[in-house]
Write a structure and sequence with these properties.
There is one protein chain. This protein has 113 residues and is α+β, with helices and mostly antiparallel strands. The strands form two sheets. A three-stranded antiparallel sheet has the order 3-5-4, covered by helices on one side. It has a two-stranded antiparallel ribbon with strand order 1-2. Strand 4 and strand 5 form a beta hairpin. The protein contains three helices and five strands, in the order E-E-E-H-E-E-H-H.
């Protein structure tokens, strides 16, 4: 496993790709533990708004918010992964805040009682 930095972000990669599709994870060291009572759910909201901007893709992808981290994950060809990571970064830089109320309602419906 190789390690470097791109604009202050740690990048890990294999020198010889394994056969089959590639998997990439864009990981942030922030999660539910970083929220306070007034901001509870904001990490999940940001993740959901970003994924709204990413849209449908012809390859496997997803995102998760955990206790300590938030991940955006894609599996596919190098072009699939490059496109996905570009879309996520672009979305995080320009969240569709006009969708906040709608997304919050959807998140409320998907949360178990």
């Amino acid at each position: 496993m190789q390690r470097s930095s791109a604009d202050g972000v740690t990048v890990l990669w294999q020198t010889a790709p394994a056969p089959g599709p590639l998997t990439a994870v864009l990981s942030f060291g922030t999660g539910v533990r970083d929220e306070t009572a007034p901001t509870l759910g904001v990490t999940r909201l940001v993740e959901a708004l970003a994924m709204t901007r990413v849209g449908n893709r012809p390859h496997e992808f997803g995102s998760t918010v955990g206790e300590e981290t938030t991940h955006f994950i894609a599996t596919g060809t190098p072009d699939d992964i490059t496109g996905f990571l570009h879309a996520v970064c672009s979305a995080l830089g320009d969240l569709p805040l006009h969708d906040t109320a709608h997304t919050t309602r959807l998140l409320g419906k998907s949360t178990p009682p």
